[in-house]
Amino acid sequence: MHGRLKVRTTAEQQEIKAKERAKKLAVYKVAMDRIFSKRKSGELDDEILKITGQVLTENPDISTLWNIRKETIVKIKNTFPDLVDNYVSKELTLTEQCIRVNPKSYNSWFHRSWVLDKGSNIDFQAEFLLCDKCLELDERNFHCWDYRRIIVQMSKTPLENELQFSTNKITKNFSNYSSWHYRSELLPRIYPSSSGDTLLDDQKLAEECNLIQNAIFTDPNDQSAWFYQRWLLFTKKESDSKENSKNSGFLSVLNDELESCQQLRDLEPNNKWVILQVCELLRRIDSLGNKKEILQLVSQLTKVDPLRRGYYAYLGSKIEEEKQKKTIPE
Amino acid sequence: MGEDIPSPCDLIVVGTGLVESIVASAASRIGKQVVHLDHRDFYGSSWATFSFNSLKNTLGLIDEFKEHTTQSQKEASDLNISLNSKAVCNAIEKWFILDECKTENDDSHQECEASRGKTSRINWTKSELLKNSRKFNFDISPKLLYSRGEMVEVLINSGICRYAEFKNVSGIYTFDASEGCLLPVPCSRADVFNSKDISMVEKRLLMKVLAMCVDYENKPEEFKEYESGNFDNFLNAHKIQGKIRKYLVDSVAMANDSTNFQDAVKNVQKFVRSIGRYGNTPFLWTLYGSGELPQCFCRCSAVFGGVYCLKRNTENIIIDSDGQAIGIVSDNQKLMARFILIEDCLNPLANIKSGISRAILITDRSITNNDQVAIITVPSANGKDPVRILELSASTMACPPGLYVVHLITRQVTTAVEDLREVIDAVFCSGEKEALDKPNIIWSLHFNINEYDSPEGKLPSNVYSCPGPDLFLDFDDHVIKARNIFQSMYPGEDFLPKVPDPEDVVLEDSSEDIVQENP
């Protein structure tokens, strides 16, 4: 019968696909042979850039080809330094295409940061836009977070802008270690503390505490904010390692946090993160005075989270130890 | 033309409403011969979307609709089709702007400017709006799709989604009558995290109740005492008060004081599960109007061999001596079929059980200020049903830029004007009383939609009656209804399986083979 509609069967579809793949493979083999023979004879020219570029857009994870490109760029930079900017911009276009194919391609991101160094007038605005776009698509793409730190450094971008960026990311989805971590790197540099108890100045500390509270009350099972809170409250300046040097201001911050954690515990009595945090806060505030309560909480933790009972047992033994240490000199 | 209609066929569908269209496409997809008729000159029946002019024609604002008086030969046992019954009725149109602003050199120019300044600050005139008639898309029954609801699943599974475009609803609000303001409803986890309107403890309670409802089926013992009661009891027991209660009841559970627990929880589940699939809110809106959807299904049916005929009357259903339907009489022509499907409004045995009060407004400004598609719930007062407001901006193709189309929907108690007066006065500014912070109404249309009740078991077993639009914001009940009808007609058959990829559809003995034969 002529002219009748027919739907291809799965076998037919597979056959078509297999044919396409065979064709692709043949082209790939020819291209690779040509690249290697050119490299052998030292022909690091426009043609080799063109062929490696074509192969890499299909498969951006062939390190060898990226390295051949690096050799070629270095050669051009040495022989025709005036032309190199043009080549750098071509490398940026190519890596962008490759990042589109595979946003987590180690090679593409690395090549991009390598090539930035070679050019003389890089448009960092465009680089930030690319990062924004990639982190929009996948806010946990650590390749892109890394790359962002590189361009921040190279372009001497004010850290305040980056802090704002991290805030925006957390506003969209606070379950984002990369972004919390970025804050923890930025904040002590922008708002250093004057005392030794914390890393941040008082006002920023209060703001960050509030941000964390919003996160842990919204979703107490999300670890990221709890981890950030630990960093915020329990990290001391390295130069200052004296015990019990807490000023009254910081002590009241700890007490406020304890109060809000207790409030959350009333609502979520079996959440391990909140129990653990109450333990840690009680310990920091007055390890000896709160010993009984802490040990009680530790035993509750063992019940609600038996998988980590070993860790909790260790925590309990540390509390006991602390007491002994203090009692000996007395 | 009549000769082209295949008879006998497998299924005759009378009326192009949503349920009818879904069943028609599902039957065509499994190779059944479908004939789909409508006496109207447009697709979608009470689900249709209209331009300015066609809306006015259809609702009888300009009386163009002839009564159908055709007599046909019929046996006493046959069922007359109620072609004259109108599901959409009582339309009242009102303009709040001048007909026309006179031209520059006209003497009365100043007077006109002056009167315009007094009555409103709107730059549009009636003639200008009507000139843009085709840029308006007015829905008779505007409805949303839950991103993980039945409609979205059917559209994706069947591939019919390629015929339409959608936009994620950008804002959900509930109206606080005491403050006279809108409260944005935090939908996603990020919204709750960022909200400045509620306290930390409220955030926890809200998230906790949402999580509990989603987990309802897995933990029946936690809900035992609430299952038979109202949603209210459940909320009281969990100390949900104030704003978070408003969010939950008005917008998430789509409930009121008397909604039972099970229905409310089902809605909460749909809401929560739909968040994040296509954006921050759980709903999709169909660009160019909800009336696109019945047409999409009709198109699919036609692609797979369905025969379509608009402006074609159906006078009666022919019943044989066993009480089974054997066909219909359409424009005096007998068409035979194994199954017959009609919309409730044409079913002579169906009665009007209740009604919907509707208004469509054109306004000059957004109520919410920055949304492309917004849903606002004005909660029920004094035992009345809530009023749902849907505001569409120009980006949804509902109107020309600079204007907004607003739909109001509630249960009919008296007339559409009366049922919606209070809400319209609270939210909009109509004519004389100018309020700076409220959008001005430029044009309004009030009407009612009848809801029918088709009695079970009175129709022959091979005749099915399909419900028209209801009060709910979504399509899910109708999709389920369509699937049930299909499965009762064709047990064991696939309901709307995936349409093959166009690249995989080939003509047998196609040119490819011919080329091989003659190299």
TrEMBL record, chain A:
SUPFAM superfamilies per UniProt: Protein prenylyltransferase
Signal listed as a keyword: no
Catalytic activity line of the entry: geranylgeranyl diphosphate + L-cysteinyl-[protein] = S-geranylgeranyl-L-cysteinyl-[protein] + diphosphate
Family annotation (PROSITE patterns): PFTA
Name of the top EC class for this enzyme: transferase
Classification via Pfam families: PPTA
Keywords for this protein: Prenyltransferase, Repeat, Transferase
Highest taxon above the source species: Eukaryota
Family assignment from sequence similarity: Belongs to the protein prenyltransferase subunit alpha family.
Protein name (record): Geranylgeranyl transferase type-2 subunit alpha
Organism in which the protein naturally occurs: Daphnia magna
From TrEMBL, chain B:
InterPro entries from the UniProt entry: FAD/NAD-bd_sf, GDP_dissociation_inhibitor, Rab_escort, RAE1_2_domI_C
Superkingdom of the organism of origin: Eukaryota
A Pfam family recorded for this sequence: RAE1_2_domI_C
Gene3D superfamilies: FAD/NAD(P)-binding domain (3.50.50.60), Guanine Nucleotide Dissociation Inhibitor, domain 1 (1.10.405.10), Guanine Nucleotide Dissociation Inhibitor, domain 2 (3.30.519.10)
Protein localization: Cytoplasm, Cytosol
Keyword Secreted found: no
Keywords, alphabetical: Cytoplasm, GTPase activation
Residue ranges of domain RAE1/2 in the record: 356-470
PANTHER family recorded: CHM, RAB ESCORT PROTEIN 1 (PTHR11787:SF4), RAB GDP-DISSOCIATION INHIBITOR (PTHR11787)
Protein's job: Substrate-binding subunit (component A) of the Rab geranylgeranyltransferase (GGTase) complex. Binds unprenylated Rab proteins and presents the substrate peptide to the catalytic component B. The component A is thought to be regenerated by transferring its prenylated Rab back to the donor membrane.
UniProt family annotation: Belongs to the Rab GDI family.
Record protein name field: Rab proteins geranylgeranyltransferase component A
Gene source species: Daphnia magna
